[in-house]
C-alpha cells in the first residue's frame, strides 16, 4: 500500500467535513429561453419547488454531489492574473525552446557552407575521389575554416559540457566536447608541429551531423508537447458580458468576476467555466474531455471555458476564473505529471550517467591499444569515434519523451494523471473495485419494466404515469418523465395534484382521477396485483410502483438506477485481461446482487459506509495483489488513498482531487479500460526505447573501438556521429508513435 494510516485518517476527516458542509439538494425549474436581440436580452428567472414523494426506494448512500465553491467577487482579477502568469511562464519556456531550435538550424547551415571547402581540401576526400587540390597556404586555410567550425558550430556542445561539469553530471555534451577537442587539438598539432594525418574532415562532418541531429531531435521533443500548447490556445480573450440592464458589453476576460452573466453566441468559444441560465445548444468539448459527440446544454448545466458552442445562444453565469477553471487545472495537472520522474526514468538517468564513464574508459583503452600497436593517427581516430558514438543522450531521452507523449494523450482523452509512478504501476493491477452509483450505473432512475394489465396498452400506461409524475421533483419521478418523453409519448396536462406522503401521489387527467401508489398503499387499499411478478422485479433491487384509475389497476412500472450500456463490455474486457472486477456500494444487498449478476462481477459488497471501504480494500490487498479503486472524489476519498491506484471518476470540471492518482473527467467506465491500456502501452514504449538505447551502445562502442578493424569493418567519426544522432531521433519518433490500442 502506498499510503500510511495517517493519510487515510486525514482523508476520512476531510470526507466527514465535506459531508457536513453539503447543502440539501433541490431541483430547479427553469423558464424556457426567450427571444433575444443583438443588444438587449431578458434575464431569466428561477423558481425552486422542493417536493416530497411517496415512493419506496433503496437509499443510495454512495452517490456524490459536487457543489462549486463560492468565493467573493473581488478574487476574480487576482485569479485570472495568476492563470495568465502561469500560461506566460509556459509560453516563455516554449519561446526559449523555439529560439534554441532556430539557433541550431542557423549554426547547421553556416557550418554546412564552411564545411564544403574543408571537405574539398581534406586529404581523405581527395584520396576517396582521386584528385589533387593543394596550393600554397592551403593547409592554413583548412586550419582557419576548421577553427571557425570548431568554435562556432561546436559552441553549444562546449557550453553544454561546462554546464554538465558544474552540476557534476557528465553526459552527452561532455562526450561530444571531448571528441571534438581531441580531434581539433590533434589536427592543429599535425598542421604546425608534428607529422601525421589531420582530422579536419572528421571534425567538420562530426559537428555538422551533431547540429543536424540536435535540430531534428529538438523539433521532435517540441512536437511531443504540442497537445498542451493547443490546450492553452483554446481560451478566448474577449467575453460578451450582460449587465444588470440586459445590455451586452464586450470585455476582456480579465475583467470578468464570479457571478457575472455572459452571452456565448453560436460558433464561439466559451470564455470561462460557467452555468447555463438561459438558452439551449450543443457544445463541442472534444479538445477538453475527449468526448467526441457535442454535449447538449440547457439551463442548470455547466459549460467549460475553451469549449466550442454550437448553433444555439447561451446565457451563463460565471462560476470559475483563472487558476480555478477546468482548463487551467488540466494544464497544471499535465505539467506536473510531465515533470514527475517515474521509477524507469530514474533508472535510465543513472544508466546514462554510468555510460559516460564507460565511454571515457573505453575511449582511453582504445587509444592505448592502437598506440601500442604503433598507429597514432588510427588510435586518435578510434578514440574520437568511441567518444562520439556512445550515446547517453538516447538513454536519457528514452523515458521522458514517452512520459510527455502519454500524459498529453491521456489529457486529450479526459484522463488526468496526477501521480506518474502510480500510473506506471497501473499495468500491474489485478483487481479493480468499482463504486456502483454513477460509475457502473447511470446514477439516475429510469424505467426498466412496463407491465400493463390486460386491455391496457403499454403506451397508454406510460403516458398516464409520465403525466402524473411531471408535477413532481422526486428523482424517480424525473426518471419516469425523461424515459416517457424519450419514447416520443406526449404528456397530458394534469390538475389537482396531491402528494400522498409515504403512499404516492394522485392527480386528475381529463376529468378522471389517477394514482401512482407504493406496494404498501396497494395493500392498505386492498387492490389486487400480480404478487409473483412484483416479487420478481423487487428481488432485482428495482423500485416497483402501481398506476391506478381510482381503484382500478392499470399496470405497474419498475424503475431502477440504470446500468450503463458500456459497463458489461468493460467488465468482460477486464476479465480477458486477467483483472478481477469487484463492486462496493452503500445500496441494499439485493440491488448490489442484481447489478453484480447483470455485469458478471466476481464479488459485491453492499451497504458499505464510505469510511468502511478502505478496510475492505486492505483485506483485498493482503494477498499482495495490486488493487485499484474507482469512485468519486468525495465519498470515496479514504478508499482512493488506500488503493494502490486511486481513480476518481466523473470529476466533470472539478479536477482538484487530492487523494486520486488519476482523474477521469467523464463517468464512462470505458475510460478505466483506456487507462489500463495506456499504462501498458506506455510501459511497452519505454522498454522499446530503453532496449534500443542500451542495445545500440552495447553494439556500437566495440565496433567504434575497432574490434573488427582487421576484418575491414571500420566506423569513422563522421559515421559514428550520424549513427548516434539517428539513435536519438529513433527514440523520439518511437515515443510519438504511442497510442491507446
Describe the protein's architecture and organization.
The relative contact order is 0.13. This protein folds into four domains: 89-227 and 336-405 and 681-736, no CATH class; 234-325, Distorted Sandwich (Calcium-transporting ATPase, cytoplasmic transduction domain A); 415-440 and 564-680, Rossmann fold (3-Layer(aba) Sandwich); 444-563, Calcium-transporting ATPase, cytoplasmic domain N (3-Layer(aba) Sandwich), CATH 3.40.1110.10. The protein contains 25 helices and 24 strands. The protein has 741 residues and is an alpha+beta fold.
Describe the structure concisely for a colleague.
The protein has 25 helices and 24 strands.
Number of H/I helices: 25
Beta fraction: 15-25%
User: What portion of residues is helical?
Assistant: 40-55%
Kindly state the mean pLDDT as a whole number?
Answer: 79
Q: Tell me about the largest β-sheet.
A: 7 strands, mixed
Structural class designation: alpha+beta
* Low-confidence parts: 1-87
Give the beta-strand count.
24
Rg calc: 35 Å
Shape: elongated
Number of domains: 4
Distance between the termini: 29 Å
The largest beta-sheet arranges its strands as: 12-24-23-22-13-20-21
Main location: membrane
Enzyme class: translocase
InterPro entries: ATPase_P-typ_cyto_dom_N (IPR023299), ATPase_P-typ_P_site (IPR018303), ATPase_P-typ_TM_dom_sf (IPR023298), ATPase_P-typ_transduc_dom_A_sf (IPR008250), ATPase_P-type_domA (IPR059000), HAD-like_sf (IPR036412), HAD_sf (IPR023214), P-typ_ATPase_IB (IPR027256)
Protein name: P-type Cu(+) transporter
Amino acid at each position: 500500500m502506498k499510503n500510511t494510516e495517517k493519510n487515510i485518517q486525514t482523508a476520512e476527516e476531510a470526507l466527514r467535513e465535506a459531508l457536513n458542509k453539503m447543502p440539501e439538494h433541490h431541483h430547479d425549474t427553469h423558464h424556457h429561453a426567450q427571444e433575444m436581440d443583438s443588444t438587449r436580452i431578458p434575464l431569466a428567472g428561477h423558481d425552486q419547488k422542493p417536493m416530497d414523494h411517496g415512493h419506496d426506494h433503496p437509499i443510495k448512500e454512495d452517490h456524490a454531489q459536487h457543489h462549486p465553491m463560492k468565493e467573493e467577487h473581488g478574487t476574480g482579477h487576482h485569479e485570472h492574473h495568476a492563470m495568465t502568469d502561469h500560461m506566460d511562464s509556459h509560453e516563455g519556456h516554449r519561446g526559449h525552446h523555439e529560439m534554441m531550435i532556430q539557433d541550431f538550424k542557423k549554426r547547421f547551415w553556416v557550418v554546412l557552407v564552411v564545411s564544403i571547402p574543408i571537405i574539398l581540401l581534406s586529404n581523405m576526400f581527395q584520396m576517396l575521389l582521386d584528385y589533387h587540390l593543394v596550393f600554397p597556404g592551403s593547409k592554413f586555410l583548412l586550419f582557419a575554416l576548421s577553427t571557425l567550425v570548431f568554435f562556432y558550430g561546436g559552441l553549444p556542445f562546449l557550453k553544454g559540457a561546462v554546464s554538465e561539469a558544474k552540476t557534476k553530471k557528465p553526459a552527452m555534451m561532455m562526450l561530444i566536447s571531448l571528441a571534438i577537442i581531441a580531434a581539433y587539438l590533434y589536427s592543429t598539432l599535425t598542421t604546425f608541429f608534428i607529422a601525421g594525418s589531420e582530422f579536419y574532415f572528421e571534425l567538420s562532418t562530426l559537428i555538422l551531423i551533431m547540429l543536424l541531429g540536435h535540430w531534428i531531435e529538438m523539433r521532435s521533443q517540441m512536437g511531443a508537447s504540442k497537445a498542451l500548447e493547443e490546450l492553452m490556445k483554446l481560451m478566448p480573450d474577449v467575453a460578451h458580458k450582460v449587465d444588470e440592464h440586459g445590455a451586452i458589453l464586450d470585455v476582456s476576460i480579465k475583467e470578468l468576476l464570479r457571478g457575472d452573466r455572459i452571452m456565448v453566441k453560436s460558433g464561439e468559444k466559451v470564455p470561462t467555466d460557467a452555468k447555463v441560465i438561459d438558452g439551449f445548444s450543443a457544445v463541442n468539448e472534444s479538445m477538453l474531455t475527449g468526448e467526441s459527440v457535442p454535449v447538449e446544454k440547457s439551463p442548470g448545466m455547466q459549460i467549460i471555458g475553451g469549449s466550442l458552442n454550437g448553433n444555439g445562444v447561451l446565457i451563463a453565469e460565471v462560476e470559475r476564473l483563472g487558476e480555478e477553471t477546468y482548463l487551467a487545472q488540466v494544464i497544471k495537472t499535465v505539467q506536473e505529471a510531465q515533470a514527475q520522474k517515474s521509477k524507469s526514468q530514474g533508472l535510465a538517468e543513472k544508466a546514462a550517467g554510468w555510460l559516460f564513464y564507460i565511454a571515457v574508459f573505453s575511449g582511453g583503452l582504445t587509444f592505448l591499444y592502437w598506440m601500442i600497436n604503433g598507429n597514432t593517427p588510427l588510435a586518435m581516430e578510434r578514440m574520437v569515434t568511441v567518444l562520439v558514438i556512445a550515446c547517453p543522450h538516447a538513454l536519457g531521452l528514452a523515458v521522458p519523451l514517452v512520459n510527455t507523449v502519454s500524459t498529453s494523450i491521456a489529457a486529450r482523452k479526459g484522463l488526468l494523471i496526477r501521480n506518474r509512478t502510480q500510473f506506471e504501476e497501473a499495468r500491474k493491477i489485478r483487481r479493480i473495485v468499482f463504486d456502483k452509483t454513477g460509475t457502473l450505473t447511470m446514477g439516475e432512475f429510469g424505467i426498466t419494466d412496463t407491465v400493463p394489465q390486460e386491455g391496457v396498452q403499454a403506451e397508454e400506461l406510460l403516458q398516464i404515469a409520465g403525466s402524473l409524475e411531471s408535477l413532481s421533483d422526486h428523482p424517480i419521478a424525473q426518471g419516469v418523465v425523461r424515459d416517457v418523453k424519450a419514447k416520443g409519448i406526449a404528456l397530458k396536462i394534469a390538475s389537482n395534484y396531491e402528494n400522498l406522503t409515504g403512499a404516492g401521489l394522485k392527480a386528475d387527467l381529463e376529468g378522471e382521477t389517477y394514482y401512482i401508489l407504493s406496494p404498501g398503499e396497494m395493500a392498505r387499499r386492498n387492490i389486487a396485483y400480480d404478487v409473483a411478478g412484483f416479487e420478481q422485479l423487487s428481488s432485482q433491487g428495482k423500485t416497483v410502483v402501481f398506476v391506478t384509475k381510482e381503484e382500478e389497476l392499470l399496470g405497474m412500472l419498475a424503475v431502477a438506477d440504470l446500468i450503463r450500456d458500456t459497463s458489461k463490455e468493460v467488465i468482460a474486457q477486464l476479465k480477458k485481461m486477467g483483472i478481477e472486477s469487484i463492486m462496493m456500494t452503500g445500496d441494499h444487498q439485493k440491488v448490489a446482487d442484481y447489478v453484480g449478476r447483470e455485469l458478471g462481477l466476481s464479488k459485491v459488497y453492499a451497504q458499505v459506509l464510505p469510511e468502511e471501504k478502505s478496510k475492505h480494500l486492505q483485506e483485498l490487498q493482503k494477498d499482495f495483489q495490486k488493487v485499484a479503486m474507482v469512485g468519486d472524489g468525495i465519498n470515496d476519498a479514504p478508499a482512493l488513498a488506500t488503493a494502490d491506484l486511486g481513480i476518481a471518476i466523473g470529476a466533470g470540471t472539478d479536477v482538484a482531487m487530492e487523494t486520486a492518482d488519476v482523474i477521469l473527467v467523464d463517468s464512462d467506465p470505458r475510460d478505466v479500460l483506456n487507462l489500463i491500456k495506456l499504462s501498458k502501452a506506455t510501459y511497452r514504449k519505454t522498454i522499446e526505447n530503453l532496449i534500443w538505447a542500451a542495445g545500440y551502445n552495447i553494439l556500437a562502442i566495440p565496433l567504434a573501438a575497432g574490434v573488427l578493424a582487421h576484418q575491414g569493418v571500420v566506423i569513422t567519426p563522421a559515421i559514428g556521429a550520424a549513427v548516434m544522432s539517428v539513435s536519438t531521433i529513433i527514440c523520439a519518433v518511437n515515443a510519438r508513435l504511442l497510442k491507446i490500442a
